[in-house]
Amino acid sequence: MTQYSTFFISILDGGDEQNRLNAFLRGHRVLNVEKHVFKMGWGFCVEWMDGTLVSSDPGNWRKAPRVDYREILEPKIFERFVRLRDQRKKIATDDGIPPFMILTDAQMAELAKMDNPVPSDMGKIPGVGEERVKKYSERLLSIL
Fold first, then answer.
1. Which CATH superfamily is domain 69-141 in?
2. 98 confidence band (pLDDT: 50, 70, 90)
């Protein structure tokens, strides 16, 4: 199914919005991107499809299989996963971004497996960079 997402990058952007757009483009099967120049920045309309890249070949996309974390995580860890997921949703709503921009479900599961994680532990999870640790670790880990 074709979907659309829009982005605006202010000329005053310090890189956060650019990083958000680039992360979105890397994580989706992009069909088309239209760029429009405005007085105060650039607007982007991204046309994309659901799917996951299954090899290094950009033409090799398929729908990602659904993972039931209740089945693959121990009950205690799944309980932490649910609490983290709920907090991630709250943060995403507050910040006006999709939850996966904070952490993917797979990254959330890795975080849930850690006993008493601190912000630097979040940076040890594959694919979680310093910027996301700075932006989200305190708010995310506050519920543990």
1. HRDC domain (1.10.150.80)
2. confident
Phi, psi of 62 (to 5 degrees): -155, 165
| Predicted TM-score (pTM) above 0.85 | no
Look up residue 118 and give its two tokens.
Answer: 């601190």
pLDDT in tens, 58-85: 555 555 678 899 999 999 999 999 999 9
Identify residue 139 by its one-letter amino acid code. R
- Is 48 in contact with 28 (CB distance < 8 Å)? yes
Q: How far apart are CA 27 and CA 93, in angstroms?
A: 20
Buried b / exposed e across 111-120, counting CB within 10 Å, b at 16+? Answer: bbebeebeee
